Amino acid sequence: MCVRGLSARLAVSIVSIIVTAAPAAAPALAAETAPCVDTSATLTVEEQRLTRAVPQEILRRAGFDPVASEFAQALCAASSYREAQRVVTAHGQRLWRRAVDRAQGRGLPGGDLSRDDDRPLYWARLGMTGVLRRWRPAFELSGPGREKLLHRLERGSRGQDAIRFTGGKGVKRVLVTGFDPFTLDRDIRISNPSGATALALDGTTVRTGAGLIRIETAVFPVRWGDFADGMVERALRPHLPRADLFATVSQGRVGRIDVERFNGAWRGGFPDNENASSTGTIPVSDPARQPQWTVTTLPYKDIVAASTGRFPVYDNTQVAEIPAGATDPVVRPDGPTEGSTARSGGGGDYLSNEIAYRATLLRDRLRLDIPGGHVHTPVLQFGADNTDPATGAVTDPDFVRNRLDIIDQIRAIIVVAADADRAGR
């Protein structure tokens, strides 16, 4: 029976079921942990990747390897749903804070992996969601009840419920979002510099020539389903009215940064982190009033003209559309034409474009007169002698340097945008 005082050994066994790659070990583990683990529960595609050596190495070298077992121990000691809610909230928010603190140099690093690395947060979260998905509590737990706990864990461990704009008069409030790593079946070592940027900037105050800016951040999953369920709007709606500027950020093209001028209302179907596809018009509330395009209000001219770092910065106006009265899509280098149907925004037709579309549509529906839009970072590349996913190391000096340079340049771009807006008003 799952009761208070569950031993650490049992909690570790729960995690073992999630991460073990050896099918022969499953029966013994299942017998040992049957009171608290439902081994018949299917893990997601993302959670199943945690069995591989690279995620385990990343967790170990960041000191995040005990996170899932500590969560399991606390969860299996919960004797009621209300207590489980408290456990899930506390451990989710603790993971986010731990990742932010590590990225910003607070406390011991916990291992030899560079502090700027976003991947420990991603893989530790998946360990926790796997624990929660296979948890068998001592009390009755419905499917919807478990889903609510999973959503609570996602929000807390992504910083979505920790956005707090503080500061006195004259402090400009900036909201920045990033993403999880993706295309992990291509290279499981992948890091996402937008997520790393979110960790590096969360809760920071930056002094600029025109005053102070306060930056709050959150990270989003690379999953079509979460976006269709309204995760972006739930996370941003309470805070956009208090923000003076926002930037959704994601990884984009090799060797360049793009400020995406136009966002299209179209999903192109590229598989997400669960290997799910979705093609069609972006699903939003009140679809009858849904525009085909939204437009950035970031001061893109100032951003492009500024010296922000080593990567060239572009005002990207290219889109793909079906012109009014036509049936076939065409590429337009200078933005959409009147009455056209979107097939690709400047940021493409994947979740980068979608978060930009959703955030700017929310801005417009709330009638907010604030700068906001999407910035694509360069692709984060490994060193020239570390490009083979099968044999390559999980990190190298060039990889770290590239990520740090991207973080610094996105920070500089945000400062330019904040100062340009302040000067313009």
Tell me what the structure shows:
- The protein is an alpha/beta fold and 425 residues long.
- Helices cover 39% and strands 16% of the residues.
- It has 2 domains: 8-157, no CATH class; 172-424, Peptidase C15, pyroglutamyl peptidase I-like (Aminopeptidase), CATH 3.40.630.20.
- It is built from 14 helices and 14 strands.
- It has a 7-stranded mixed β-sheet with strand order 2-3-1-4-14-5-10, with helices on both faces. Strands 12-11-13 form a 3-stranded antiparallel β-sheet, with no helix packed on it. It has a two-stranded antiparallel sheet with strand order 6-9.
- Strand 11 and strand 12 (330-332) form a beta hairpin.
- Helix 6 packs across helix 9.
- The longest helix is centred in the C-terminal third of the chain and has 28 residues, at 397-424.
- The radius of gyration is 22 Å and the shape is globular.
- 48% of the residues are buried.
- Residues 1-14 and 19-34 have low confidence and may be disordered.
- Residues 1-21 form the signal peptide.
- Keywords: Signal.
